[in-house]
Specification:
about 150 residues; 5 strands; alpha/beta; 6 helices
């Protein structure tokens, strides 16, 4: 599947404005729950799994992008949330840069191959200077979705 197919348009948050990474992750998980990517009753448990994964090792992969992710028994399908971070956020990125875009990926525990394929597609976009610049310039849910549809991923 393409990355676009994992997105819930109504969950995409442009210009998330929060003081810290864990609060931002909570907002992203809650947006996915509100979009019915998974039951709202499971949002807190999924958020804890995303935060725990983030504590193991940073998912700030550099170049202004963070890809927090988790595999969860509470998720029934792979889902992705995208947000721009206008104030930039310190996510402990490997290159020390502040994060401008967050792509949150949540997958069922049993979907290891699909989860890894999605992560690989995200990293491929981030490592391409042209596509990364396009990702950073997205300002609306439609612009994020159009980019992902065009790239394929």
């Amino acid at each position: 599947m393409s990355l676009r197919e994992y997105c819930f348009p109504e969950a995409i948050l442009c210009e998330i404005d929060t003081p810290d990474k864990e609060t931002a992750l909570r907002e992203l998980v809650d947006a996915l729950a509100a979009a019915k990517a998974f039951p709202k009753a499971k949002a807190a448990a999924i958020w804890k799994e995303v935060v725990e994964r983030e504590r193991q090792a940073t998912t700030g992969i550099g170049e202004g992008v963070g890809i927090p992710h988790a595999r969860s028994s509470h998720a029934k399908k792979v889902c992705m949330e995208i947000s721009s971070v206008p104030a930039d956020m310190d996510c402990g990125a490997v290159d020390g840069e502040l994060v401008k875009v967050i792509l949150l990926l949540v997958s069922p525990k049993e979907s290891t191959d699909e989860h890894l394929a999605a992560m690989k597609s995200i990293v491929k976009i981030v490592r391409d200077p042209y596509q990364r610049a396009r990702l950073h310039s997205c300002t609306s849910p439609d612009s994020f979705l159009d980019l992902l549809a065009e790239i394929g991923g």
